[in-house]
Known about the structure:
Low-confidence stretches: none
CATH superfamily of the largest domain: HIT-like
Cofactor: Fe cation; Zn(2+)
CATH topology of the largest domain: HIT family, subunit A
Domain Galactose-1-phosphate uridyl transferase C-terminal: 209-374
Catalytic activity: alpha-D-galactose 1-phosphate + UDP-alpha-D-glucose = alpha-D-glucose 1-phosphate + UDP-alpha-D-galactose
Distance between the termini: 70 Å
Domain Galactose-1-phosphate uridyl transferase N-terminal: 4-179
CATH class of the largest domain: Alpha Beta
Mean pLDDT: 92
Bound molecules: zinc ion
Radius of gyration: 21 Å
Keywords: Carbohydrate metabolism, Galactose metabolism, Iron, Metal-binding, Nucleotidyltransferase, Transferase, Zinc
Strand content: 15-25%
Largest sheet: 9 strands, antiparallel
Amino acid sequence: MEHFDTTSHPHRRYNPLTNIHVLVSAHRTKRPWLGQTEPTDRSNLPQYDPACYLCPGNTRAGGKVNEVYTSTMVFENDYAAVLPPPGPVTPPAAHPLLTVEPIQGGCDVVCFHPRHDLSLPTLSLSDVESIVDEWTRVYMKRGTEPGIKYVQIFENKGAMMGCSNPHPHSQVWSLSVVPTIPTKELASLHNYASTAHVRSGVPTGPDGHACLLCEYVHHELTVPGDEGRLVITNEHFVALVPWWAYWPFEIMVLPYKRHISSLVHLTTDEKHAFADIISRVTKRYDNLFSCSFAYAMGIHQRPIPPRQDADGIYVQDADDIAHLHVHFEPPLLRSASVRKFLAGFEVMAEPQRDLTPEQAARKLRDCSEVHYLHTAQQRDIESA
Ligand SMILES: [Zn+2]
Ligand SMILES: [Zn+2]
Ligand SMILES: [Zn+2]
């Protein structure tokens, strides 16, 4: 058995003071930094960049060659934050307060499209649908691997979010533990289901119990006009600035017609509506300050897909309390270059914001859904 080494083996340390875990992946410091930074304006990016490790046919840092893909492409991250099982056994704690937990899993990269210069807001709706299909496939594949307890799909967009490569892509980390934030959210959903009453006309969670998010989104749909926090709605989903939003233009996307616990539960129509709202939200984001809008985006749903019975029907279990939703957490505050920083009070005490969520929602409602680069191109064509 391999010897456990904190600099080579990913592990989780527990903070008994705050009840939060920290994932330590020191082996990743060996990964190369390409020195690229994402521009705030993508209009000058080439369609193909010979130096990009995600463009079709190019060689990645680990020496592997990308296929010449035409839609989405998935590969295992050459510098994964967690490593596949089996990992070494962690040594006994030197003190009961200094606990360490081994963690295993895998990290996949999902490239959105072969074009280097595009991004979610400038991809076509059918491209975004292909991405949703790919996320669903990876969630299903990774979430049914032995020992995997949680799958996190996320996108870091923009140099501001630490993303070094502008080529459109997201990541999927699958883990042998359920991390801190989804654990808290699931506990809140369970607690609500066991204590709250269902109001008439509001969709319910499993077994007719109240769902915190079904109830919340139902209320938001009834708040009138400028007092509201809705940004857009479609046939099955809403995008809103949540009442408790922390980031200036934070958005939550969630289904409102029925309780849906994961991507695999979406009908064809719902999947189409999901892609539609992601496409429209990200267009509004880019148009807000006429820039490629940076954000951290993540999908919260059942930790892993449900078990299927002999007929392929999903078997309901306690995790179905999860209500599928997407968080968009963008750092920009006032312009393409003025961002929110986490200052003393926020790091030491609690989150703080200036702009109200209602004001942010109003500004996002006022944005066009015709991408500003498209508008600029039209102007150039007309004036030529
Ligand atoms: Zn590229
Ligand atoms: Zn629900
Ligand atoms: Zn969430």
